[in-house]
Amino acid sequence: MASLERDIAAYERWLRRRCDVVEADLQAKHERMRRSAFDFLRATCFRWARRIETACPGFADAPKALCVGDSHAENFGTWRDGQARLVWGVNDFDEAATTPYPYDLIRLATSVRLAPGLRVDPAEAGAAILAGYLRGLKKPRPMLLDEHGSWLKPWVAGGRNTARKFWNEIDDCPDAQPPAPVRRALKRSLPRDAVILRYASRSKGGGSLGRPRFIVVAEWQGGRLVHEAKALVPSAWQWARSEASARSRLLELAQGRYRAPDPQLGIESRHILRRLAPDAHKVELEDVPGQGLAAKLLEAMGADIGAIHAAHRRRKAIIEDVSQRDPEWLNRAAETAQRAVQRDFESLKS
């Protein structure tokens, strides 16, 4: 059995010991992995974590930080903070782990190279990500769309049909009965006087496809609310390192020093709880109009990752390290990583 096939099988055995895998969703994930190299990258963070040090050498000794772990061009979205401000940034920290800081940047730059239909020069993309990253490290802050991020709003609004698409998707979710602890957690996440209309299951995600997801739909003050519970499992980096610890670092990053966190995001009964709404969604590449991701948007992505890393105690060491590197280091590393991912993808398809 090839190395890739062994890793897929081993990771899925590990996953089944940690949650009640939805086998149909896992099969859908396998099909999605064969669709494009970009989808393969999204679905196989575990393979990246296992292979990146040898596939892209020279970074293992770089300063470490508590990292996103699964940074890519579609791992950004919007939410409302505790003061109802609309915020944009990384909105999925399932794979949070302490790693050398360059790996977050390399994975993001690699995803931009692999993303189908994106017309962006790889060298310009790497330069924009790095410029934003340094800015985020030195002057960290969240991206508030009604303040200093107003230029970004047209890119992430999703268009006139966003709300209709959202509610159609929710209405299509099949009725389901979550396990009692999950059902109670979802009920507690709602306002006290909300009237529960139904519970349902939901199939969603890239790397997380296969984990159980449940939603509760409720009526409250003239409209509907939707909250989700997604099974929590340890980071794929823990699998790759054969670590015994299963402690999630998700909330540490999501509620970090320079974040404007979503107050509806939490963990209970081994599930990640969050609010779902048309104005709180992950930004898919198909949402981005025009000729692809502009350098300004890539710079914003780099800045958000920089602000996340800036909360780490080794912030000064990271700034010194990235400032001393050749300006082309990220472009070269992403090119190397791209070739490795492409080889894996072609191997899987064959």
Characterization of this structure:
The structure is a single chain. This protein is of the alpha+beta class and 350 residues long. The chain has one domain (3-349). It has helices at residues 3-16, 23-33, 37-43, 45-55, 102-114, 122-138, 153-156, 162-172, 180-189, 236-240, 250-254, 295-310, 315-324, 329-349; strands spanning 64-67, 76-80, 86-90, 97-100, 143-144, 195-201, 213-220, 223-231, 266-268, 271-276. Helix 5 crosses helix 14 (329-349).
Fold topology:
Elements: H1 3-16, H2 23-33, H3 37-43, H4 45-55, E1 64-67, E2 76-80, E3 86-90, E4 97-100, H5 102-114, H6 122-138, E5 143-144, H7 153-156, H8 162-172, H9 180-189, E6 195-201, E7 213-220, E8 223-231, H10 236-240, H11 250-254, E9 266-268, E10 271-276, H12 295-310, H13 315-324, H14 329-349
Antiparallel strand pairs: 1-4, 2-3, 3-5, 6-7, 7-8, 8-10, 9-10
